[in-house]
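Data card: per-record layout.
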Amino acid sequence: QVQLVESGGGLVQAGDSLRLSCAASGRTFSSWRMGWFRQAPGKEREFVAAITWNGGIATYADFVKGRFTISRDKAKNTVYLQMNSLKPEDTAVYYCGANRIGGSDYNYWGQGTQVTVSS
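The structure for this 119-residue chain is written out next.
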């Protein structure tokens, strides 16, 4: 049974930093891509960043380039999202997802972690 468990969210001020973690279990993810998405109130879920498990190739949404960094620790089966220079518009529930490379959908999701950035 695949499980993705996010942690690390919280309430911070604009300009602060947070590091989100996504602990993955239940299968090997060697041919998978791990992604972070977010959903703000009244908005659709949007892509933030993703990384291939084996090669560590990262992609980012334009609105986080230069501020957020995605990484993974294969020994800990954990994916991280380091978020710097946070803005109030980054306020959202952040979700971790797993996508089999070559497939179009994310097959597994975590429960989400709330990030709130005050101005």
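Known properties of this structure: The longest strand covers residues 92-100. The CA atoms of residues 98 and 108 lie 5 Å apart.

See the next section for split statistics.
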